[in-house]
């Protein structure tokens, strides 16, 4: 595309907007598509029968002729349209008859001529378009036209612009993609031609942000080429860009806030049951080793520490100020933090946007920007950073150190995270409440956790993304290094309605979230337990080196259910090579089933489990292992658990590490055995054939997206 | 349809089979469809131009003409086909030209005439057919034609025959059903005409079992009428009917077997660790109050009870014989049971079909039929019937009495059932192992549990149904009274493969299972945990009286996730009437969100939970309640649990009972609170917003199918 045409397209849009039009005319639409090289049917205005015939011959038959007159709206009614013209003579004759009919029907009409249009042969209908999402900005959409997109909503979204290879990937992301390959004897459509249109639409959306919607519907795709037959373009006020601090600034500030050397508690209290007292106790009893400065207008000392009348009275630097005062006092105290140069405020108080008090929240945002203070919250429980023994929260303390960082938009979910973690003994690096997200949001956290040496996996619960585009950009980068798990609440219409009454946030179309999270390499969890189990299990599993999964089971019935789960979770059950099949058969009874699952049968001693697991770990063709244990007297649960831990340790000493998960079927002793296995890096579940496979599946999904498989 | 045409159709099929043909000719297909009144395009053989014109006029224009000659296969190539004829003159002319062209192209061809066929106008393509399933027998299928059925497998199955109303229901069971309503300006198709064809195809399949497959593809459906344009019929050996004892006989035998007054243990042993010893100990220590007869060739006494050298030596009647001897001795001992008149044998031993020894299993089946002994197994763990304190198994004992009966095809899953039950304190009536299912299968169990006063809910794990049709028939009846939960393993291709290596059973197409279980009113669980949680929760919940579900939550974030789960599980969040909304607002803070979810906000005292829950229970417009609790100091977990139990008790005293489930978000104390709630009839889960809603959803699915809603 030349610069000239960019200027042309800009002029078109500005003209339409200055006239107050929401839609471009067909001619304007056509000009924009042509400027970007999107194929459209040829057309030419002819003012004589001869020039119509010439035009038709130049663009190729068949053609359609349509009268052009400002006075004639319903062209067909006046005999103003003739379709399917196959020869120059027929075109010339049609020209004359159209003009005659039109003149007769509308005697006073000014006839500007007749439009000669190329008739595009039937092809497979696809739809390409762009929409402007309140959170993600410009999106490109692709779907199969007709009933598939209308009835079954078979469509895929990506952030605009898209590269040509991403555009090509969109063709494989729809359910009915087989239609593009050809069914009922058709050949495949020209994928490159469609991808080219998608890519160009992405550029149009990016270059011309005033285009709020653009629909090419249908695009007729052929075995060679694709043509946009119909187009509709809506224009309006382009979305405004949200301010974001530069990356280095975010990192510096977030490191001071989440790993502070000093914490001030604004509203510290000596009175048990008060939030300001709970925060103080959590800081002190949690074992935080940095400086703690209680701030209270009158107290001399709180919980044995010297108190200050104001944050400004503190001698040393303050990295992080935790607010535990009523909403109406927050702005004043926040200003003082600004004057003191505190980089971050943890705004526990509620009474802001979540109660409808949007103005009060905007006031905080303004102060934050004025003094360059990052704000967490308001309306949050605070945060935990275990590797600093820091519980900057009024909720129960938590101190089990580990590699998972979790965050939640909601306090209830935050408490569920703490409870689940404690119950499961899950080690975490951080738990963070984001609440109203007046400032700090999920992508700020991602930016911090990306470079935090204690965090290897990040799990985030949210109801909306205030800036989905920024999130997607950061997540795309971070997910290459560290798995990101997202629980997006308000997925469904009913759920989205609840979300908007909760936070005043407009929940986005869930399919958009699905697609963009996928594009960004984020592992989406669809339930709270899934998020929690993925967060717990993924750091335990080494990254698999390949797709070959093998099930070894003592219970054939578990093997069947585990196989079901493998398919449900996109895992590949390895086709067992003959030599390996033979090797397994050496260890199992003659009626045991080798193949995959390897069914060692129920009555086998520990040695059989040991030998088969060892074989699977040692063989390089096998990349991951799912164990299905069946409780028997011959191999009791803890004997099984210990032998597995033992084999794994032996193999690790030889440098062999593979993801292993286990499903334990049996009486209640299998619960203890599962815990023993989990403590030794093998995610294991009693009475479930699906959860261990889901956890392994999540690891695979991540590894594939991160390009490690 | 007249009897005469039934005879005609039978003659057609017998002729085809006697000639060894697998497919009927187009003419034969047409005759069968016509005999049943399935609309097909009119056609007539004309032998002159005039008769062709007459025929066309009679059937209506447009028509197509096709040459009929045994020597001419590719009619189009010889100018033997003319389509789109609109007038009698055109038909006459076409007749002459076809005959002339054909004679010229194939001079020696015998020309029998020209076929005049009605051209069916374009319409929406649907597919109607019948297939013969190895387990379910004759099935009717319906789908949208073209890419939808081919690419997206959008098809629904029902057992044949189907009533007209069931046939009409099939039109609503496909994903793309909106196409039948009309899209892009089309009107709705003639649903009655399609349903009529489906019903007729069901009758054809039932009347003519030799028709193994019948495809009407496409049926062109119009706004008025529908016509089967193309048909294909495959014939072959009809499936054989499996023997089943009469209902009364099944009930009598199963009652003696599962609730026996006397049990013999064939292969009782005094040696700890032997299966025959474990069974003896479980019977004695489990507190079984009936007679126990150890059978052992030499022992005088086993575990303090008099032993018998053979079952025939026992003085009294024996209701149930538990086998704990090696496979090769089973046939002899089974014969002795037969001679003794024992009605049921519990065949724990393995070494039969599951190890490939099919002949040995067939021998047992023959003995069973000869002596009218019902066989459970072989290759099982046995069974439990808690209300008789009966543990007829070598596995660990279980004695918590309750209303749920569970069964499993696999021993591993059976042990998972025992472990989960013990861990959750789940009361059960029975746990039964079915193993190889040489005889007793899922529908025998359903028949027993239907009339068992201690069983209110039935949960079954299976990999195949040896007689899916019998199962569906019994389940359709039983599910009206008692919920049936099914975990069908081997759902997926990989899973089905594992199933067939495990039991030698051919796992059916999963979509067929899905549809037929649906038709039979069975609640399908897709994972082991789902089956277990549904089994545990469903008996606790009263049957809802309507669809209106209300969420009351202290955590807005939980409310959003609970709403998501409601939509996922087909539950209806009641649109809150203004007066009720106002009534709720009386109790909650001004910034709390009424509507639905009712968000009472996090800082509220017990009184707010109490008042809102009471209001929801008392208002008749609300039918079910989902509680989302958030752990705070103001309302600690056990305080919440106790107040809920208290309100529910108070309401129950007033005759108000509604299904209530709860999701508890908080620190580990919420686990104890959840257990307390569950013990009092409120299925409650810590750290999960989805499981409680799934359980409620299962209850609703059942109530709807049972016609109670």
Strand-residue proportion of chain A: 15-25%
As for the number of domains of chain A, it is 4
Between the first and last Cα atoms of chain A, what is the distance in angstroms? 38 Å
**Main sheet characteristics of chain A:** 7 strands, mixed
- Look at the structure and give the CATH class of the largest domain in chain A: Alpha Beta
- For the largest beta sheet of chain A, what order do the strands appear in spatially? 19-18-21-20-22-23-24
Count of runs of 4 or more consecutive helical residues of chain A? 24
Oligomer: homodimer
Uncertain runs of chain A are 499-508
**Estimated structural class of chain A:** alpha/beta
What's the pLDDT, averaged over the residues of chain A?
93
Q: Which pair of protein chains has the largest interface, and what are the residue counts?
A: A-B, 94 and 94 residues
How many extended strands of chain A?
Answer: 30
* Corresponding CATH superfamily of the largest domain in chain A: Succinyl-CoA synthetase domains
Q: What is the CATH topology assignment of the largest domain in chain A?
A: Rossmann fold
| Residues in helix, % of chain A | 25-40%
* Gross CATH architecture of the largest domain in chain A: 3-Layer(aba) Sandwich
C-alpha geometry of chain A: flat
In short:
2 copies of one chain form a homodimer. The first copy, chain A, is α/β, with parallel strands linked by helices and 709 residues long.
């Amino acid at each position: 595309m030349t610069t000239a045409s960019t200027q042309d397209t800009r002029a078109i849009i500005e003209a339409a907007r200055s006239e107050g039009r929401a839609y471009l005319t067909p001619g304007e639409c056509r000009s924009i598509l042509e400027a970007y090289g999107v194929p459209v049917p040829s057309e030419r205005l002819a003012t004589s029968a001869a020039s119509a015939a010439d035009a038709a011959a130049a663009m190729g038959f068949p053609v359609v002729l349509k009268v052009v007159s400002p006075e004639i709206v319903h062209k067909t009614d006046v005999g103003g349209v003739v379709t399917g013209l196959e020869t120059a003579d027929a075109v010339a004759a049609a020209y004359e008859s159209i003009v005659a009919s039109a003149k007769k029907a509308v005697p006073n009409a000014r006839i500007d001529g007749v439009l000669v249009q190329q008739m595009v042969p039937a092809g497979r209908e696809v739809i390409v378009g762009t929409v402007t999402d309140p959170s993600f900005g410009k999106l490109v959409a692709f779907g199969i036209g007709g009933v598939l997109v209308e009835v079954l909503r078979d469509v895929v979204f990506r952030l605009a612009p898209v590269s040509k290879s991403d555009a090509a990937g969109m063709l494989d992301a729809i359910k009915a993609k087989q239609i593009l390959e050809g069914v009922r004897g058709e050949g495949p459509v020209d994928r490159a031609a469609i991808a080219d249109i998608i890519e160009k639409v992405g550029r149009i959306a990016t270059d011309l942000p005033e285009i709020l919607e653009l629909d090419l519907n249908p695009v007729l795709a052929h075995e060679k080429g694709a043509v946009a037959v119909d187009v509709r373009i809506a224009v309006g006020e382009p979305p405004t860009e949200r301010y974001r601090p530069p990356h280095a600034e975010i990192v510096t500030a977030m490191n001071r806030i989440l790993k502070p050397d000093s914490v001030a508690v604004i509203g510290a209290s000596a009175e048990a049951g008060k939030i300001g007292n709970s925060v103080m106790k959590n800081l002190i009893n949690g074992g935080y080793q940095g400086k703690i400065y209680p701030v209270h207008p009158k107290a001399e000392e709180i919980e044995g520490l010297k108190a200050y009348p104001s944050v400004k009275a503190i001698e040393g630097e303050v990295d992080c100020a935790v607010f535990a005062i009523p909403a109406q006092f927050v702005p004043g105290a926040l200003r003082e933090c600004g004057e003191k140069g505190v980089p971050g405020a943890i705004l526990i108080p509620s009474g802001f946007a979540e109660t409808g008090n949007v103005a009060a929240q905007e006031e905080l945002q303004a102060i934050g920007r004025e003094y360059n203070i990052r704000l967490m919250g308001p309306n949050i429980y605070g945060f935990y950073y275990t590797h600093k023994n820091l519980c900057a929260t009024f909720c129960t303390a938590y101190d089990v150190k580990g590699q998972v960082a979790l965050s939640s938009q909601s306090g209830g979910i935050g408490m569920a995270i703490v409870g689940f973690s404690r119950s499961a003994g899950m080690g975490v690096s951080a738990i963070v409440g984001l609440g109203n997200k007046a400032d700090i949001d999920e992508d700020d956290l991602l930016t911090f956790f990306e470079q935090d040496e204690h965090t290897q996996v990040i799990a985030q619960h949210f109801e909306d993304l205030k800036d989905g585009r920024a999130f997607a950009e950061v997540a795309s980068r971070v997910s290459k290094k560290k798995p990101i798990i997202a629980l997006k609440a308000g997925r469904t219409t009913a759920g989205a309605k609840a979300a908007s009454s909760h936070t005043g946030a407009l929940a986005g179309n869930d399919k958009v979230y699905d697609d963009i999270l996928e594009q960004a390499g984020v592992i989406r969890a669809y339930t709270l337990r899934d998020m929690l189990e993925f967060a717990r299990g993924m750091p335990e599993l080494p990254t698999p080196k390949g797709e070959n999964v093998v099930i070894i089971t003592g219970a054939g019935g578990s093997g069947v259910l585990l196989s079901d789960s493998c398919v449900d979770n996109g895992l590949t059950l390895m086709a067992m090579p003959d030599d390996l099949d033979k090797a397994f058969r050496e260890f199992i009874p003659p009626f045991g089933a080798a193949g995959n699952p390897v069914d060692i049968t129920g009555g086998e001693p520990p040695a059989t489990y040991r030998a088969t697991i060892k074989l699977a770990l040692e063989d390089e063709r096998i990349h991951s292992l799912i164990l299905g244990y069946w409780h028997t007297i011959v191999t009791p649960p803890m004997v099984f658990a210990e032998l597995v831990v033992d084999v794994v340790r032996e193999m690790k000493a030889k440098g062999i590490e593979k993801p292993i998960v286990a499903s334990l079927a049996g009486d209640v002793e299998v619960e203890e055995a599962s815990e023993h296995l989990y403590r030794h890096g093998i995610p294991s579940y009693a009475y479930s054939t699906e959860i261990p496979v889901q956890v392994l599946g999540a690891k695979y999904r991540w590894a594939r997206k991160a390009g490690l498989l």
